[in-house]
Specification:
This protein is mainly alpha-helical. The protein contains 16 helices and five strands. It is about 50% helix and about 5% strand.
Length: about 325
């Protein structure tokens, strides 16, 4: 019969190695089957038997049962929550349920599963919300698992929402992977609801890329649509909504004919300032880029070649 397996990685620096005959006790750290341990711990999730704390979760007010000691020792946020309850309630009131109406039950249960087993079952439906909860509860390892899952399952429909989360929670690696996906599927992604719901910082992260696979007039039209949607949602004028992001639109890539069309459209909604359009007309007249930010003269990966781009090549150092 095979005995328990030694896991050297669990040994403390000062602990003697198994089989070290210089130590009369032959101390060692041994590890049993982690899978069976996790399976047994999973049986305790939301089990009323022997539970000592209840949560009322979500708008549907689902009851979730748990064990204080596990949650408290695994998560400082829960530890603080329980300690605050003891301070504010009489002893007989300590079993009052915690009400968490702003989180979905399946999302909360995923967090609980991680705390009990150090594993989590994710799906595209809940992954971003679980990431949000992981951030709120300070669960760094769960954050990493969510980021890994989200980054590896990006779709045209989910990419912008994932990018927004990456920007919000400062997940640099996830942000880079989202941008790479968006760069490869730009034409489809700018038509999604997620694109129209991006914040200024998230949209700016996209517009600063040289690798977008879309022609500039199409990108400008998509950003105009974004501005109109957000103007309605935020009840602010289109020019106020767009004032930051239009700085990253590369109007110098447009031909005089395209610029004329843009100017006519602009008179309807004042999407961008007249001065910005006038700056482009000046460039076309003088063929000089004095004072123009260099990256605004660079063609993106999806930019269709135009005759006047030969003047841009002079300023792409």
């Amino acid at each position: 019969m095979q005995g328990p397996r030694l896991d050297p990685s669990l040994s403390s620096p000062a602990a003697p190695r198994f089989g070290d005959m210089s130590d009369p006790l032959h101390s060692a750290y041994l590890r049993g089957k982690l899978a069976s341990f996790a399976a047994d711990m999973r049986k305790m999730i939301n089990a009323p038997e022997l539970s000592d704390v209840k949560f009322i979760v979500g708008e549907e007010r689902k009851v979730v049962y748990a064990h204080r000691c596990i949650l408290a020792y695994r998560c400082e946020a829960f530890s603080a929550m329980f300690a605050q309850q003891l301070l504010s309630c009489a002893a007989k009131e300590a079993d009052i349920p915690f009400v968490l109406l702003d989180v979905q039950p399946d999302v909360f249960l995923a967090v609980v599963e991680f705390l009990y087993t150090n594993c989590v079952m994710l799906s595209s439906k809940i992954a971003l919300d679980v990431l949000t909860s992981a951030v709120e509860y300070g669960l760094d390892e769960l954050q990493k698992l969510c980021v890994e899952y989200i980054s590896s399952t990006l779709t045209v429909e989910s990419a912008c929402e994932a990018l927004q989360a990456a920007v919000t929670y400062r997940q640099t690696d996830m942000k880079d992977k989202c941008l790479a996906f968006i760069e490869g599927h730009t034409k489809s992604i700018v038509k999604t609801r997620g694109f129209h719901e991006l914040s200024d910082p998230a949209l700016l992260a996209i517009l600063q890329s040289d690798l977008l696979t879309i022609d500039e007039p199409d990108l400008i039209n998509s950003v105009r649509e974004w501005a109109h949607v957000n103007s309605v949602v935020l009840d602010k004028p289109v020019p106020e909504i767009a004032k930051e992001v239009i700085r990253e639109l590369r109007l110098f890539l447009l031909t005089p004919e395209e610029l004329t069309i843009l100017e006519a459209e602009n008179k309807k909604d004042n999407f961008m300032s007249v001065d910005k359009i006038a700056e482009v007309w000046k460039f076309h007249a003088l063929k000089k880029s004095s004072g123009i930010t260099v990256h605004l003269l660079r063609r993106r990966k999806g930019t269709r070649p135009r005759d006047h781009h030969k003047y841009l090549n002079l300023y792409r150092k």
